[in-house]
Amino acid sequence: MNNKIKTPAVDLLFEAILNLKSPEECYIFFEDVCTINELLSLSQRFEVAKMLREQKTYLEIAEQTGASTATISRVNRSLNYGNDGYDMVFARMKSTAKDK
């Protein structure tokens, strides 16, 4: 875990996020907390990560998401050398989808 971001304020934010119960509640909360561009950037990076895990090429990803190659490269670095957060969430989403 990155101690640079572990602060009481970040703990409080994550506690708030964990209390959201539906996608609609997420929209309401995140539209208040983030600018539209911040939210779109976060969602774009998540989509890029998903496509990288699906073995899509940088060109395919750039064309479909509008992400720059620099953004795709940063996300790829996180996937390969980060904390495995993307993979943890992808695995849970896959498990949840199987349960439905």
UniProtKB/TrEMBL annotation:
Write out the GO MF terms.
DNA-binding transcription factor activity; sequence-specific DNA binding
Annotated signal sequence range: none
Tell me where on the tree of life, at the top rank, the source sits: Bacteria
The record's listing under PANTHER family reads: LMO1763 PROTEIN, TRPR-LIKE PROTEIN YERC_YECD
What's the protein called, per UniProt?
A: TrpR YerC/YecD
- The protein's organism comes out as Acetivibrio ethanolgignens
